[in-house]
Structures are given as structure tokens and as C-alpha cells.
């Protein structure tokens, strides 16, 4: 598909984009307006300006064909539309709507992506459109302080514990399926495809730190998730590969396994890969993470134990440690000096204003 897109002119839509373009009017009637690129009347903006197509808002192709951004005409809010096929993922919409139900949506421990609406198009009951908030990867922008990373871990553990308490195994809760709400981090928003740029792609998107505006983290993509009856205390599932290919119990085996134990591995491995191996200053997480990713799934802690052990770790961290900077392992000397200097300026200001070292979003 990407090879096809690479051969197209900038003004030509690839097949993934054509699918959305052909439904532009029907989506508009549902109350969701796609960007100008996907209007049947679209005329490329660079044709009548001096800007190169790469520098324009409508020169940006979709990154994932089944997901597109849209403006909700009711209130002007930018949302995400996801196209799913019930025949491929029969439980995705039901599980997503379950966690978005009135009884669960307002609970702070719920970190499942909210679903605003689900509808069908073309009279095809197999193809559904899920409407969700516009989110961005959980590690973008980068973490400034240890306290910010600690709050991220807390929310992820809390969220997975919440899912497990409601007898839902995510089964693919690896790093690419963890997102954050950028609403307050990016007060002027950003382009939904070129996320490092502002909305019209005329400059970099401005953001503040997580200490200033703490985000909420969310799990997305319930395509292979399963919900179990409370009476089934020990469900087993035939291995199914998610995005993380390192799951020990799936290597050379089709034996049914505990999906909740696999979830514990996924989230532990995400922290290992994105933090412990890539950052300095987070070594205190190693013992817990090692226990979460051990080869024997029966020996891994349950999420209740993970949360309890993490709370004990968090309480032992000093204010100085929590306000210290998270350093990339590959950071060169120039970046080290520049980033440390700017970090200390912010740190002094935060301490003076009494801003907590562990930021937490409003309930």
C-alpha cells in the first residue's frame, strides 16, 4: 500500500484515502466533517500558492488507513473516526462501548479510550465507524521529570487493573496502544497527521510540560480484547499475536494461556523498552518490571499486586528524585547541557509555585 502511495502524485489519493473521500458527504450528514483533502471538491492548496506541497496542511496523507480525523460539526471538536469490520473484530465495539457506559465512564480508574458514538454507513452492518477523541502517543512529547514518568506508570497500572477487575483482558496493551489526551498539553492543538506541526503546518506545535498540564493516559484498540463471565475465574485463550512479538508463552506454542498474565507482560515490557532501556534515572522500576516479564506466566504478579508494589515504590521516592530530569541514554553533551539548563529553570519555578512533583490530572 505504501509503495502504491509512493508512486502517486501529491494530489492523488491512495486507495485508503479514496474510501474516506467516497463517504465524505455521508459522514457530513452524520455530523463529522473530514479535512479539505477528502472533500470531492478538493483543490490542492499548493496549486494556488507559493508553498511546497510538503509544507501544506492538505499535503499530508493518512498514516493508518482505517483511522482518520474529523471535525464534529456540533461543537467544532476534532475527533478520531475508526473503521472496523465486525467480522474481523466482533468484540471491539461492544467492549469499547462497555467501558464508555454511564456506569463506568466517570470512574477515574477507567483508562479505556472514550467512545462518543458508533454508527454504520452504506447500509452495511458489518462495517462500523467508532468516534473517539483525538489522542497522541503516550510518550510524545517526551517526559521531562521522573515524577511525570511515575504518574504515567501509575495511570497505566491503574487502568489495566480496572480492566481486569471488570473481567476484560486487553491482549495487546503494548506501547503503540497507549495514548494520552493532548488537550491541555497542546493548548493550540496540532495537525492530526503531522503531529509535530501546528494545525496549518506553518510551524511547530507548541506544548507545555506534563507537570504544568498533567494528561490522562488511555488504552486503545480492543480488536483482540475479550470480556469474560465473572464465574470464569481462570479463562484460557489460544495465543494470538498482538504488536509485541516477545511474549514468552507464545513462542513455539499454541497451548491456551491466561490472557490476564499476558497483559501483565505487555505493560511491563512496554515500560522496559520505552523507559528502562531508553532513559536514565528510572532504575527503581527494574525489580517490578522484571517480575512482570518473567518467562513463566504463572509466576507473574496479578495487577492488584503490581499496583500495591508500585505504590510502595512511589512512596519511597524523594522529592529531589521526582523532580530530577529524565535523560535519554543517547543524549549527547550539547543536548545534555541545553536540556538540563532549561529543566532547572522550570524546576525552580515549579517549586516556588508549589506545583506537585508528581502531577495528576483533574478527576
UniProtKB/TrEMBL annotation:
InterPro entries for this protein: Kinase-like_dom_sf, Prot_kinase_dom
Keywords linked to the UniProt accession: Kinase, Transferase
Domain Protein kinase: 53-363
SUPFAM superfamilies: Protein kinase-like (PK-like) (SSF56112)
Gene3D superfamilies on file: Transferase(Phosphotransferase) domain 1 (1.10.510.10)
SMART domains in the cross-refs: S_TKc
Ranges in a coiled coil: none
Listed GO MF terms: ATP binding; protein serine/threonine kinase activity
Gene Ontology annotations of biological process type: mitotic DNA damage checkpoint signaling
Pfam families: Pkinase
The protein's name in its UniProt record: Kinase-like domain-containing protein
Organism in which the protein naturally occurs: Boletus edulis BED1
Amino acid at each position: 500500500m505504501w509503495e502504491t502511495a509512493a508512486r502517486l502524485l501529491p494530489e492523488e489519493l491512495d486507495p485508503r484515502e479514496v474510501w474516506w473521500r467516497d463517504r465524505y458527504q455521508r459522514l457530513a450528514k452524520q455530523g463529522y466533517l473530514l479535512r479539505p483533502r477528502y472533500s470531492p471538491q478538493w483543490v490542492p492548496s499548493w496549486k494556488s500558492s507559493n508553498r511546497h506541497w510538503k509544507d501544506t496542511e492538505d499535503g499530508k496523507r493518512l498514516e493508518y488507513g482505517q483511522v482518520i480525523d474529523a471535525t464534529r460539526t456540533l461543537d467544532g471538536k476534532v475527533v478520531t473516526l475508526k473503521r472496523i469490520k465486525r467480522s474481523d473484530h466482533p468484540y471491539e465495539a461492544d467492549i469499547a462501548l462497555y467501558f464508555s457506559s454511564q456506569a463506568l465512564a466517570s470512574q477515574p480508574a477507567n483508562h479505556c479510550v472514550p467512545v462518543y458514538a458508533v454508527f454504520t454507513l452504506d447500509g452495511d452492518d458489518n462495517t462500523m465507524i467508532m468516534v473517539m477523541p483525538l489522542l497522541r502517543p503516550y510518550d510524545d512529547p517526551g517526559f521531562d521529570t521522573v515524577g511525570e514518568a511515575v504518574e504515567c506508570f501509575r495511570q497505566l497500572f491503574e487502568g489495566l487493573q480496572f480492566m481486569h477487575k471488570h473481567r476484560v483482558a486487553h491482549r495487546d496493551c503494548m506501547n503503540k496502544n497507549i495514548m494520552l489526551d493532548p488537550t491541555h498539553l497542546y493548548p493550540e492543538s496540532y495537525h492530526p497527521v503531522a503531529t509535530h506541526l501546528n494545525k496549518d503546518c506553518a510551524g511547530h506545535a507548541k506544548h507545555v510540560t506534563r507537570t504544568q498540564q498533567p494528561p490522562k493516559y488511555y488504552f486503545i484498540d480492543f480488536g483482540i480484547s475479550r470480556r469474560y463471565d465473572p464465574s470464569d475465574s481462570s479463562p484460557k485463550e489460544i495465543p494470538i499475536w498482538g504488536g509485541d512479538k516477545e511474549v514468552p508463552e507464545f513462542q513455539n506454542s499454541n497451548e491456551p494461556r491466561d490472557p490476564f498474565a499476558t497483559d501483565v507482560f505487555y505493560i511491563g515490557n512496554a515500560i522496559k523498552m520505552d523507559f528502562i532501556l531508553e532513559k536514565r534515572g528510572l532504575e527503581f522500576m527494574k525489580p517490578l518490571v522484571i517480575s512482570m516479564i518473567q518467562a513463566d506466566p504463572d509466576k507473574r504478579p496479578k495487577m492488584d499486586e503490581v499496583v500495591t508494589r508500585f505504590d510502595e515504590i512511589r512512596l519511597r521516592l524523594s522529592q529531589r528524585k521526582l523532580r530530577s530530569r529524565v535523560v535519554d541514554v543517547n543524549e549527547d553533551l550539547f543536548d545534555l547541557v541545553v536540556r538540563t539548563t532549561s529543566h532547572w529553570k522550570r524546576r525552580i519555578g515549579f517549586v516556588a509555585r508549589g506545583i506537585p512533583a508528581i502531577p495528576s490530572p483533574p478527576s
